[in-house]
Design brief:
Blueprint (H helix, E strand, L loop, with lengths): L9 H10 L1 E6 L2 E9 L3 E5 L12 H5 L4 E5 L17 H15 L5 E5 L1 H12 L6 E5 L8 H15 L2 H10 L3 H10 L6 H11 L2 H13 L3 H6 L6 E7 L7 H10 L4 E5 L6 H4 L1 H12 L10
Parallel strand pairs: 3-4, 3-5, 5-6, 6-7, 7-8
Antiparallel strand pairs: 1-2, 2-4
Length: about 300
């Protein structure tokens, strides 16, 4: 792609988000999603703890070439899930598949950030998603090991059962300094507007409860075992300084998945698509422009 896309101004991006927001009631789930652009469908899936807001800068760039669909995962952001919903990886994948079916969309490209990449990969392996290209942004596709697994998962399960814990954590998020420390701990740096978006999101007890429940129910072992049979091209875009999903893990996934390509985005951390949206959009579009893989144009 020559020259690369230019990023829309911040105010324009926020206006477009409001303009393209939609709500879908389906199977007890109340989905909030954003639909933007026209042409072949492209699916954007955010990671744990985020929402479709994390694509506020990337989405308009991709919408110049695709109909981009970015839902808030069940319980996250403005989406709501019933108490009976268990946010395991298979359940999340099945729920997104039902949403796409209801929207009558068959995405040609799927882009997932962190845990969102695992959802997209699970759907692809299950056959509910058949993209010609699957893009993992800081893709979380490797199971927790050792001490992290022994300590982190039980703690997440314990906290997920407590509404008081969710309210307490949401209260802590009122201090922007805490959000900034959390973002920096992932190797990323966001501007004041970016930090404020996460602060407001993290102040919602329902969102925090959904995040804890998802972390408690997550199991990547089956998905990791099936990666060699992934029936789609895989492009892994990794943040150079990512501390949440280290580069070593990205390399291991690339080596495990036949035909996968790994590219490192210099100067970024776990939130690479928010730090350098123009660069990330360019890499995705250029991958589709590679010889023999024409990119659809409006």
């Amino acid at each position: 792609m020559r020259g690369g896309p230019a990023a829309p101004r911040s105010g324009d991006r926020e206006a477009k988000r409001q303009e393209h927001a939609r709500t879908v009631e389906l199977g007890g789930l109340r989905w909030h999603l954003e639909v933007m652009g026209r042409g072949p469908a492209l699916l954007l899936l955010h990671g744990t703890g985020a929402s479709s807001h994390s694509f506020h800068a990337l989405m308009p760039l991709l919408a110049r070439h695709f109909t981009v669909v970015a839902p808030d995962l069940p319980g996250h952001g403005a989406s709501r899930a019933p108490r009976r919903f268990v946010p395991s990886l298979p359940a999340m994948a099945a729920a997104v598949a039902e949403l796409l079916e209801a929207l009558e969309l068959s995405p040609r490209v799927a882009v997932g950030h962190s845990a969102g990449a695992a959802v997209a990969a699970r759907m692809t392996l299950d056959g509910s998603l058949s993209p010609s290209l699957l893009v993992g942004l800081a893709a979380a596709l490797v199971p927790f090991r050792g001490v992290t697994r022994a300590v982190f998962l039980p703690a997440a399960k314990l906290l997920s059962r407590s509404a008081v814990a969710a309210r307490f954590l949401a209260l802590q998020a009122r201090e922007v300094e805490r959000i900034e420390r959390l973002v920096r701990s992932t190797g990323s740096t966001l501007d004041a507007a970016g930090l404020e978006r996460y602060r407001r999101l993290s102040m919602r007890p329902g969102h925090v409860a959904a995040v804890l429940a998802m972390m408690a129910a997550w199991d990547l072992e089956p998905l990791h075992a099936e990666l060699p049979g992934l029936p789609a091209r895989l492009l892994l875009l990794a943040g150079e300084h990512d501390r949440a999903v280290p580069l070593a893990q990205q390399r291991a996934v690339a080596a495990r998945t036949p035909g996968a390509r790994l590219m490192v985005v210099k100067g970024t951390g776990h939130l690479l698509h928010e730090e350098q949206p123009e660069r990330v959009a360019r890499l995705i579009l250029d991958e589709l422009d590679r010889p023999g893989r024409p990119r659809p144009r409006r």
